[in-house]
Amino acid sequence: MTTDGERAQVELLWDDRFAVKCPCCGESMGINRKTRQSAMDMPLASAGYVGILYEAVQGYCRPCGRYHTERPLEIVEGHKATLRMMRHVSLLCRWMPASRVCEVLPVIPSTAWRYDRYILQTELPEPKLDGLEAILIDEKHLGKKGFITTVLNARNGELLYLAAGKDKQSLDGFFSKLSAGQKEGILAVGIDRAGAYKAAVEKWLPHAEIVFDKFHIVANYNDVIDKVRRRSWRDANLTERNFIKGQRYNLFRNPENLTENGKQQLDALLEANAELNTVYTLKDSLKQVWCYSYRKCAEKCLLGWIETAVASSVTELKRFANGLMEAKEQILAYCTHGITSAKIEAFNAVIARVITKACGVSNLDYLFLKLRQESLQR
C-alpha cells in the first residue's frame, strides 16, 4: 500500500499456488491471461480516494469449453468500484440527491446513480406475491410525466408494482405476473370510486371483494359541500356573501381542529344558510358508517343516512346519496376486510418526497426501486 495522505493505492497480486476453478464443473482451469485492473474502494483515514490495483486472471476450462475471469472478492465485473463502496453510495443516495454524493465521496453524479441502481437491482428482494390477502391500488400524478399506478400490500404497505398511466391496462402487468393460486388468495382490493381500476379488478379477480375507501368517500363528500358553498355564494346578496367568503376550509375541517375564531364564523354561516347547515351536519354522521364492525349495523346506518340525504332539498346531496346507494356493497365490504387507503395515501407522500429529492423522474424502473426500498424500510 502506498499513500500521500490524500490518496492511497493498494496492490493485490495473484497467488500462483491457487488455480482458477470453473464455476460450472468445479475443475481447475488453465490460466489464459492476467490483466491489471483497478477499482475504487471506501475512503481510509485521511485518504479520501482509495484505489485497488489487482490482477484479473482469466482461465479456460477445456471440458466446458468456456472462459472465466477471477477477481478479488467485493469486485464485480463491469464496475470500477468495490461492492462495499457501491453499497455506501447507495445508502447516501437514500438520504441525499445523487448529484450531491460528490460532496462526500469522489464519485460523479452519473456514477452515483449507476451504483445506486445496481445495488437496488441486485440486493432488494423481489415483491412477495405469495400469501397476498388484500391489496390497495391508487394513482399518483407526477406533473409533466403524467400519472403512475401503484399497488401495495394492504397489510404491511409493501410496494408490489408500479406502472405508467391510470387506466385498467396499467394493472395488466401486475395481474399477469400472479399465478392462479396467488389470484385466488386475494380476497379484497381497496380502490377509490373514480378511475378505471374497478373494471380491471373485476376482470382479473372476479371472486375478490372491492372495498371503496372511507377517506376517498369523505373527500368526495367535501366536494359536495364545496359545490353547495359555491352555489350559495353565487345566489347570495352582498350581505350574505360576507358570511360565506373564506369559509371553505372551515367547512372541511373537523370541529376539534377549528380555531375559536373559525368556530364562531362557521356557526354564523350555518345559522344563516340552511343548505350548508344540512350538508355540514350530515358529514359527521356519514363517518359513523365506518365505526361499525358488523355489516348489518353498518348497512342500517348507511341506508338511514342515504334516506335522510335523499329527503333533503339539496340537489348535490341527493346526487351523492344516490351514488352511495349504487356503491353500497363496496362500502360495506370494509366491515369484512377492514382495509382503508391510509397506507397508500401515506405512501403518496413518500413518492412526492423521493421525487423531490431526485429533482424529478427520469426512469420509472429506477423510481420503482427507490420507492420499493422505502416501503420495505417503513
How would you explain this protein's 3D organization?
With 378 residues, the chain is of the alpha/beta class. It folds into three domains: 75 residues, no CATH class; 114 residues, Nucleotidyltransferase, domain 5 (2-Layer Sandwich), CATH 3.30.420; 124 residues. It has 15 helices and eleven strands. α5 links the parallel β10 and β11.
Give me the secondary-structure topology.
Layout: E1 2-3, E2 7-11, E3 20-21, E4 28-41, E5 49-61, E6 66-70, H1 83-95, H2 109-123, E7 134-141, E8 147-153, E9 159-164, H3 172-177, H4 180-185, E10 188-191, H5 197-204, E11 209-212, H6 214-235, H7 238-244, H8 248-252, H9 260-272, H10 274-287, H11 295-311, H12 315-326, H13 328-337, H14 342-357, H15 364-377
Parallel strand pairs: 2-5, 7-10, 10-11
Antiparallel strand pairs: 1-2, 3-4, 4-5, 5-6, 7-8, 8-9
Give me some keywords for this one.
single chain; 378 residues; alpha/beta; Nucleotidyltransferase, domain 5; 3 domains; six-stranded mixed beta sheet; five-stranded mixed beta sheet; 15 helices; 47% helix
Q: What characteristic shape results from the CA principal axes? A: elongated
- Tally of contiguous helical segments: 15
Low-confidence stretches: none
What is the distance, rounded to the nearest whole angstrom, between the alpha carbons of the first and last residues? 42 Å
Main sheet overview:
6 strands, mixed
Question: What number of structural domains do the residues give?
Answer: 3
What is the alpha-carbon Rg in Å? 30 Å
Instruction: Name the beta content range.
Output: 15-25%
* Element order: H for helix, E for strand: EEEEEEHHEEEHHEHEHHHHHHHHHH
Q: How many strand units? A: 11
**Class based on secondary structure composition and strand pairing:** alpha/beta
Q: Please tell me the overall pLDDT.
A: 89
Helix content: 40-55%
